[in-house]
Design goal:
Layout (H helix, E strand, L loop, with lengths): L1 E10 L5 H11 L3 E7 L2 E8 L1 H13 L6 E10 L7 E3 L20 H8 L42 H7 L21 E5 L4 E4 H13 L4 E4 L4 E6 L3 H11 L8 E2 L3 H7 L4 H7 L6 E5 L16 E5 L4 H10 L3 E5 L11 H7 L6 E5 L11 E4 L4 E5 L9 E2 L10 E6 L9 E5 L1 E4 L9 H18 L5 E5 L5 H13 L3 E4 L1 H13 L5 E11 L5 E9 L4 E7 L2 E2 L5 H4 L1 H13 L3 H8 L4 H13 L5 E2 L2 H11 L11 H14 L17 E2 L8 E3 L2 H12 L4 H23 L3 E5 L6 H13 L3 E4 L10 H15 L10
Helix pairs in contact: 5-9, 13-23, 15-16, 15-17, 15-18, 15-20, 16-17, 18-19, 19-21, 20-21, 21-22
Length: about 775
Amino acid sequence: MIRLRVKMRGVVQGVGFRPAAHRLALQMGLAGWVTNTSDGATVEVEGVDSQVRRYVDRLASTLPRPVGVNAMTASRVPAIGEHEFRILPSVEHGAKALAVPPDLAPCDACRLELRDPRNRRHLYPFITCVLCGPRYSLLTAIPYDRARTTLAGFPLCKDCLDEYENPDDRRYHAETTACPNCGPQVTLMDAQGGTIGGGRSALHAAAEHLRKGGILAVKGLGGFQLWVDAREEASVQRLRERKRRPHKPLAVLFSSLDAVRAYCVVSDEAAVVLTSPQSPIVILPRRPQAHLAAAVAPGNPTVGAMVPSTPLHHLMAALLGFPVVATSGNRSEEPLATDNDEALSRLAGIADLFLVHDRPIARPIDDSVARVSGTGPIIVRRARGYVPTPLYIGDRARGGKPLPPILAVGGHLKNTVGFGDGDRVLLSQHVGDLSTDEAIRGFRQTVADLSLLLERPPGLLACDLHPDYYSSTFAAEKAREERLPLVTVQHHHAHVAACMAEHGLTGAVLGIAWDGSGYGLDGTLWGGEFLLADYHGCERRAHLLPFGLPGGEQAVRDPRRAALSLLFGALGEDALGTARRLWPEWEQEARVLLAMIERRVATPTSSSMGRLFDGVASLTGLSGLTTFEGQAAMAVEFAAERFAATMREPDACSEGWYKLPLRRGTQPGTPMVADWTPLVRNVLADLEHANHPDRIAYEVHVALANLMRRVALEVGHHRVVLTGGCFQNMLLTRLARRKLSAAGFDVYAHEQVPPNDGGLALGQVMVAAAHSATGSGPGAGGKG
């Protein structure tokens, strides 16, 4: 007889690990116990030597799908002569290492029960089991048990308790289990909070309201959504006006994968992502004849499609039989509403009716957003379904040493917060843009939330180099108050480090970091960067030729300003005449702005690739004034994709005729500069010859991919990392991969975290950890 102690780390709580370990032991006639611990789960198993070792071998391979084991160790302990196998209460001693599963879409078994009239949970909006349902959105502490969730106030009825205690039942120790007799309930309310109906009658009345063109606020898993019939132009426009979101695409909820296929082009890869347990919004090409309101995504050939991710969504979608807009329940730039009273207040004047429930939400979690690239999904917004799954980074930053507890506060846009500890980094859900008081409160709550759940204070802080980001000022204040070291990390260095961490890369890489802007080491705005980087530091090897942005932030909203600066750089004094031809109604303002550019008055310079895309969008007439980040650049991408669709080999390694020559620095060690002025003159020449803007947009993409290859050949490093918000552009990423790979480079792009600023916190953790290991301040920012 032998006894082994098996320690499991990873996503092993709340996903059926203990029941599965128990069932396997009973099948094999073994004794012992299993329990949740603060950093995972532990099994002690006793019996005949060969059977015990076979049990350990089988354990990892027979676990339910949501289980994610990162580390498993087995050690021999004295046998004690046990004769049964038990599930023990959770053990809370030791350092906590959060590995709770994310919120998962209903499993196949729960969906079958939901539709089965003979089942006692038939049409129950909160059906769940050990394999699916809410987890992180209702977690209040760890280890993960019902008493530490927002379901603590819903005692189990006898039938549910019997299932919970039955080792042969799918709901054995399922902490979120509930039924109509003991679980949460739905209610339909009017805008004043008066009750219209409850239960199934509430669902039917809500569906009828949507059929009549009304706007419905729906309390989902991690917060409220705003729903409206996606086929009706007037209804969608009314939602846009009330939400103050004139152009940004709205997500659409379809009842099933087949329903998505009727409106969108769905590849096999996209189908897998759409119907995965994470169930994100997936950006898909819209079918030309699809009957969706144009206002769903004005001027956009894609649809942010999603299928039901909760039982409530399944029931409503089945009742409706048509697609609905299902967008975040907030006003523009605000965080999600999560509480019923809060929703009635903050969504007043937007929603007509409110479909609510009485299960509290512990933290707001928005829907995740993904794109598919042919080489795997790219996460654009990492939230429901993916958070809080940690990223395991092993010894990538510290030469085999564990990470110290590091809090990284991310950037200003698309903010996420990160916490590194041991061999993992936990990224928070998408917080959003820190530009309103509500968003700042959400950010502060997220920071507090991580500390509460981990019960481990940080020993080191990391933030962006930009001194005026709210996240940076917060970190500086916290560092002073708590006397903690603070590492400031250059924006694009963090982008590169994040992608390196995803792929387990150590040593140096050539990082191509292209985005809207980030504070550079020289105090200017960067955004078209080629960095030779590792976790310890970065060296700027090349960058886009800087140009002025008259009015600063105003140039982000008005792409003509970037275009005017490009014209001035390419044409000099002739810029005004060209501007007059392109924008005749804008001549007087253009004249003033050109004077500002020439004299460098209120005109910060930037090497931003995002602003270059904006300028091209304006020069070609593809975009006017913008109302959301990336709008103009997206117009250029869509135009280029339209042209690519007419080509026999759209991703072929064409040389094109647009050029961005490389100018070498006058001093040794100074970076090369990619000169965009010939490209601008190429664009203007094609416009003179009446070439279609779609073709021009495609040629710009080819020129930028060629630039990447040329710089990579000059630098001569075999590993190239693509990062930054510009690499949400699938055509740009495909062309870059093709050209760089053909030239012999190993190319890495984001998969698990967003290429945009939603991934900054991961990179900040990695850079801070590297410099903590050496005790030096980062070469990419300094140490405060």
